[in-house]
Amino acid sequence: MFELKNEKTAIPVVLFAGLLWSFGPLVVRYMDEPGLVPWQYIFARGLTIFILLNLYLYFEEGKNFLKNYLKVGVSGLIGGSGLGIAMITFIYSITNTSAAITLLCLAAMPFFTALLGFLFLKEKISFNVWVAIIIASIGLIIIALGNTEKTSLLGLIFGMTSSIGFSVFSVSLRWRKETPKFTTVAIAGLFCVIVALIFIAINEYTILSSSYNGAMFSLHGTIVCMGLILYSIGSKAIPAAELTLLSLTEVIGGIFWVWLPFLGVNEVPSANTIIGGFFLFMSIIYYSLTIKTN
Questions:
Q1: Per-residue pLDDT tens digits for 151-173
Q2: CA–CA gap between residue 157 and residue 176 (Å, rounded)
Q3: pTM for this structure?
Q4: Dihedral (C-alpha) 15, 17, 18, 24: value to the nearest 10 degrees?
Q5: Class of residue 124 by CB neighbours under 10 A (exposed 0-12, middle 13-18, buried 19+)
Q6: Residue 11 and residue 233: Cα distance in Å, rounded?
């Protein structure tokens, strides 16, 4: 796999990966009533991710890419399931609350990862990271207090679940570093397909939505895949913690795109979301400024 070894070159690549992901919420907002067809969305997005990643691996490694599935192991299955759950809860979060709240929940991912690493991998958490976690927690509490409506609070809970799911995926990769990263993500796509098919069958839904929605579902899956490929290309040249922070352009861009009036959504964050988001971003800034001492 092509990898960048120069940090100065890798940084804009990773920033661009986060920027690509930031268009995801905008794509969801352009869908026709995505809250009414969540399982069709999960099925189509998961299938797109599974197919595209396997095609990418085939062109990179030839038929040998199939051997990666034999190397996945327990860590890959746990990581794939965690990422799959994150993908599933993402659509339930963003269709029940604002894109800003969903994205700010995802911004807490580095801190959930640190906590899970401490609990399950016995990785030490420095004083600076604990301070960042506390600041981030204050921000999330403020956001929660401003979203007491049942559907909005449900969206917040799903957003936090999505963030934790991504953290499980990240910790699983650190558990066994030799676990094939792309194959684990492909398993996440397959996980989404299987779970979606089960719920579609139980509820006797149609497997496909409209052709327009189907195109939007696949577009979102493609954006996710492109971002993951770029993220992985730049990953070898940048320390893991810094890599996570750079990818948070997804949060900044995502909130901006759905607010930008001429793009047609004009979703303005609430006061509590702005205040809570300020605390969350302060924690990220503090974390980034002290990262060299962790």
A1: 678 888 999 999 999 888 888 87
A2: 29
A3: 0.84
A4: 150
A5: exposed
A6: 11
